[in-house]
């Protein structure tokens, strides 16, 4: 089998992510020791490795919530520093655990509503630094999936992969017709690994769902199902090929967008053959300038391409990071990797428009109701704190002109606001926010004066205009709608009062009154009881240590003394807490 000649340096830009999101440009030879990549890796060892990681993660979560675990006293700066160190450890651990956890980590990097911002930022750096698998394994997969050998399908096939990632690797090849292509081949044993890992992850999701603190208001099983769907879709290369065809059709009228063509005769569930479309990676700014390309224009075109996908097509690239976008020598935008795509349903767009009207009005109630209908907000018994959070966001964000807003700053604030709140951002929303932030970063790298909001404003105005025309949401109809709502509320008020009185008579309404002063007294009494118990225990262990020491049982005396010392430390902390209660006004 003949190997292809060395590709030009510029052509290698296609490798940046043809294999999978955030893949390395060359296989990492130094990581061949990953246990999950070994042929004799057993199921029991796999389970052991995963549970060791999970238990340590739970311990880190527990330690993070204990103020006494911070040397020198708790401060917010110390907590952020510790979380950053924890996030770096999590990222490295996910790499060690392999494909399933790499992909789950990349998905969780969009869930600022579930995890602290320090974790989200670190997980967004998660890279697929994994070893390549052998050419013999590639040949076996191609033969098994297509029924033909590599020599029958291709005139030439480079045995050295251009890029290796957690889900597969890419080889440059040449068809018998002479056309140059890339063959994306799935990693062997991937589905077996997914099956084992997802079964364990389901048990972990069930644990978190039933946890009194972490499970409150969270749909961990729903998040698990969502991750499963996305992971299995990414392993189906036929689905990725269909996505690429749909994406290319949507941009067929735009001569400045290029999408690799799928060669279906050479494609199967684990082998995807695409047109070889080399280009310059969009974040290689010096190479773009050397090719004589206009960086400001490229920043604008990249933003417009994504807004076209989102607002007009309703079918968008869910991971448009720099590795998935390149530029041809003649200035065309090239998109790669269509394994993870997002869709926006027609009814969602209408609800989003209602949200926009509420934001424009600074009406927290309307925004909150539209978010509940979108599924981005879980309704709770007490919506007061949520309403105040939304109002705070509106008051702070809407003071600046639209063009001066930063997508990254807004998304960070949203995630900070959503963490530990009943917000539940759907996957589509989080993918869109991450894509906006990524594109804004790429745009500013290309053009320091680039403003994503400024590019988005005409698209947003067009959407609102079209929505107003189609749905009758003109300013007069909006005023009429609000007037009808007021009149309906006024006419229905007597009936609502009567219903409330009837419920009071039946005992269906319960009023809960919380007294802060009473809560404080109860906490103080509880602390005094604990103080008494710990005092008795310290005295008992101290007396035991003394008796054991007198009887020459030094080791047992030392153990009893250590127990007395530990309990004494806890006793001291309880005394300080009681002192704080006494000082409270």
TrEMBL record:
Residues 1-25 have a biased composition (Polar residues). GO terms for molecular function: ATP binding; protein kinase activity. InterPro entries: ABC1_dom, Kinase-like_dom_sf, Prot_kinase_dom, UbiB_kinase. Residues 1-33 are annotated as: Disordered. SUPFAM superfamilies: Protein kinase-like (PK-like). It comes from the Bacteria. The chain crosses the membrane at residues 530-549, 555-575. GO terms for cellular component: membrane. Keywords: Kinase, Membrane, Transferase, Transmembrane, Transmembrane helix. GO terms for biological process: membrane lipid biosynthetic process; regulation of response to reactive oxygen species. Residues 156-522 form the Protein kinase domain. PANTHER family: CHAPERONE-ACTIVITY OF BC1 COMPLEX CABC1 -RELATED (PTHR10566), PROTEIN ACTIVITY OF BC1 COMPLEX KINASE 7, CHLOROPLASTIC (PTHR10566:SF113). Belongs to the protein kinase superfamily. ADCK protein kinase family. This is AarF/ABC1/UbiB kinase family protein. The lineage of its organism: Bacteria, Bacillati, Cyanobacteriota, Cyanophyceae, Spirulinales.
């Amino acid at each position: 089998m003949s190997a292809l000649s060395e590709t030009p340096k510029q052509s290698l830009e296609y490798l940046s992510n043809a294999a999978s999101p955030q893949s390395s440009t060359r296989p990492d030879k130094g990581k061949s020791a990953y246990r999950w990549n070994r042929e004799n890796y057993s199921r029991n060892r796999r389970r052991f490795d995963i549970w060791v990681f999970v238990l340590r993660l739970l311990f880190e979560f527990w330690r993070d919530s204990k103020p006494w675990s911070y040397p020198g006293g708790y401060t917010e700066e110390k907590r952020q520093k510790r979380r950053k160190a924890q996030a770096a450890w999590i990222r490295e651990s996910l790499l060690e655990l392999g494909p399933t956890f790499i992909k789950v980590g990349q998905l969780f990097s969009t869930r600022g509503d579930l995890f602290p911002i320090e974790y989200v930022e670190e997980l967004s750096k998660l890279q697929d630094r994994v070893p390549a698998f052998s050419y013999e394994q590639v040949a076996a997969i191609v033969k098994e999936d297509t029924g033909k050998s590599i020599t029958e399908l291709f005139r030439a096939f480079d045995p050295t992969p251009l890029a290796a990632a957690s889900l597969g690797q890419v080889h440059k090849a040449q068809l018998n017709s002479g056309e140059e292509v890339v063959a994306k081949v799935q990693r062997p044993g991937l589905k077996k690994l997914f099956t084992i890992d997802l079964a364990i992850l389901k048990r972990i999701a069930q644990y978190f769902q039933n946890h009194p603190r972490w499970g409150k208001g969270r749909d961990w099983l729903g998040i698990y199902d969502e991750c499963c769907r996305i992971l299995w879709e990414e392993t189906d290369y036929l689905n990725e090929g269909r996505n690429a065809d749909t994406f290319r059709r949507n941009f067929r009228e735009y001569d400045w967008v290029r999408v690799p063509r799928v060669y279906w005769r050479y494609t199967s569930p684990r082998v995807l053959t695409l047109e070889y479309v080399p280009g310059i990676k969009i974040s290689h700014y010096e190479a773009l300038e050397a090719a004589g390309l206009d960086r400001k224009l490229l920043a604008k075109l990249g933003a417009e391409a994504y807004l076209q996908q989102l607002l007009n097509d309703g079918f968008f690239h869910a991971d448009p990071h720099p590795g998935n976008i390149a530029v041809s020598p003649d200035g065309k935008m090239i998109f790669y990797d269509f394994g993870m795509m997002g869709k926006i349903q027609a009814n969602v767009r209408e609800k989003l428009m209602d949200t926009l009207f509420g934001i424009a009005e600074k009406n927290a109630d309307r925004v909150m109701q539209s978010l509940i209908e979108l599924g981005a907000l879980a309704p709770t018994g007490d919506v007061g704190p949520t309403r105040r959070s939304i109002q705070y966001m509106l008051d702070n964000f809407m003071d600046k002109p639209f063009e001066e807003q930063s997508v990254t700053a807004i998304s960070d604030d949203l995630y900070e606001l959503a963490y530990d709140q009943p917000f539940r951002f759907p996957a589509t929303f989080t993918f869109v926010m991450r894509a906006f932030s990524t594109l804004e970063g790429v745009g500013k790298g290309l053009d320091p004066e680039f403003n994503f909001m400024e590019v988005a404003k005409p698209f947003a105005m067009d959407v609102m205009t079209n929505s107003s025309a189609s749905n009758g949401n003109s300013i007069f109809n909006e005023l009429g709608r609000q007037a009808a709502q007021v009149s309906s509320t006024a006419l229905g008020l007597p009936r609502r009062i009567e219903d409330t009185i009837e419920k009071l008579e039946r005992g269906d309404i319960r009023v809960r009154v919380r007294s802060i002063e009473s809560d404080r007294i109860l906490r103080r009494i509880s602390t005094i009881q604990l103080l008494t118990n710990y005092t008795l225990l310290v005295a008992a262990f101290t007396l035991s240590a003394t008796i054991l020491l007198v009887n020459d049982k030094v080791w047992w005396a030392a153990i009893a003394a250590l127990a007395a010392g530990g309990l004494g430390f806890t006793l001291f902390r309880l005394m300080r807490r009681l002192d704080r209660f006494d000082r409270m006004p």
